[in-house]
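Hi C.,

You asked whether I'd gotten around to modeling the 328-residue construct. I have! Everything is below, sequence then structure, no commentary in between.
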Amino acid sequence: MKRRFLKQLGTFALGPLLVLGGGTALAQPADYPNKPIRLVAPFAPGGAVDILARILSERLAPQYGQSVIVDNKPGASGHLGAQLVANSPGDGYTLLVGTIGIHAAHASYRKLAYQPATELQPVMVLGEAPNLVLVPANSPYKTFGDFLADVKAHPGKINYASAGAGSSVHMVTALFELASGARMAHVPYKGSGPALVDLMAGQVQVMFDNMSSGMPHVHSGKLRALAVTGPKRDARFPDVPTIAEAGVPGYSGTSWFTLAAPASMPAALVNKLNKDVERALASPEVVARFDKLGVNHTPNTSAEAAAFFKTETVKWNRVIEAANLQLD
């Protein structure tokens, strides 16, 4: 496969660990959709998931001639909303915008009331993006090197924000700690929106946030970007180095976002949704908005998305095990 998200990812790629459920209990109705669709965004408003859900809602509603309602259900790093979708009928009227934390890093939670790997299935991977290492505009850290030196000199003393324990923001930060040997104090929030408010206020010192939610605050001058987490510099921030360039060789971590459905949804309806969403994402307006948000989309089928989930689960399970990330 030429698509980046279907490739094995370095030493973390050890083979598939999860089998995704796919239901056939329901037949695809000929008139789908004939009522409003509920699009669950399992984080607080203002973060990357919420932003992408609203873009998708705006594009699908006129295509379908039905309302596509974004329903924010924050809690348990996205698992509260994901469980709601998993327990819903597979009729296409309740869908989920998902993340690493839900689909590939769920092993960090010891006691989930549902099984993401078997009770949810992917419709597609909506996009992938590097994160930004962000600090307040008045932070003493002028470069990533300044930050790295201080966090190593004062283990456990620097507070970092995340969109929730086990979220993609948490996981790319945990990967940094593992790769660098640095240790910080984790302050989880119910989404990037409230975390960024506290970061700008100086209540926490740093956040490895999704580019789509953090970038506007860099442009407004309220936050400073010290590094990007991806394998190469991002064209939107050509002067900002990668973490690997700036002092942690070999580091690379990105966030990705999905459209997912209950496992009971029949393949015919999954395929229809995949094609309809791909049509919406292919519009020049959405391409431009995704680019502005720092999200890179490559067309993919539900089967390709499932293969990607497997590879990413292996990668993040290694991080969870090595960092001993066990959450209640």
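If it helps when you're writing up: DSSP finds eleven helices and nine strands in the chain.

Thanks,
B.
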